Amino acid sequence: MMALAIQFTHYDLKLLRAGITVEITLAAVANVRLMTAKNFALYKEAMKHQFIGGVARKSPIRLTIPQAGHWHVVVDMEGHHGQSESSIRIVETAPAPRFQSAS
């Protein structure tokens, strides 16, 4: 297999729970992809993969973790000119309120 020729910036988010928001700040238009470990492995091999995100024309972009698991963010310039500086931060979100039974 041929490895991916596109240069990219990789952020390993480790294990995150569903509902956490990831905020990605960019210096230019870039592709932002939030994906599972399995899909990141496919991406690195230039194979078909699934992701959340896409072309980020504004900054910052916020993506929400859809389910608990090991997540990765990739920023690449495929289809765009130049390079984009990027940074990332995890934004803790409040847990959903739980209904309580009346006694």
Question: What does this 3D model show about the protein?
Answer:
This is DUF1883 domain-containing protein. Residues 82-103 are annotated as: Disordered. InterPro entries: DUF1883, DUF1883-like_sf. This protein has 103 residues and is mostly beta strands. The chain has one domain. Helices cover 8% and strands 44% of the residues. 19% of the residues are buried. The model has no long low-confidence stretch (mean pLDDT 88).
Summarize the structure.
The protein has 103 residues and is mainly beta. The protein is built from 1 helix and 7 strands; from the N terminus they run E-E-E-H-E-E-E-E. It has one helix at residues 37-44, and strands at residues 8-16, 21-26, 30-36, 52-56, 61-64, 69-76, 86-91.
Report the helical percentage. Answer: under 10%
Strand residue percentage: 35-45%
Instruction: List unreliable stretches of 5+ residues.
Output: none
How do the strands line up in the largest sheet?
Answer: 1-6-3-4
DSSP summary, beta strand count: 7
**Into how many domains do the coordinates divide?**
1
Category from helices, strands and their pairing: mainly beta
Q: Name the shape in a single word.
A: globular
| Rg (CA only) | 16 Å
Mean pLDDT: 88
Distance between the termini: 63 Å
Count helical runs: 1
Order of helices and strands: EEEHEEEE
Largest sheet: 4 strands, antiparallel
Organism: Pararhizobium capsulatum DSM 1112
Domain DUF1883: 7-92
Region (Disordered): 82-103
Protein name: DUF1883 domain-containing protein
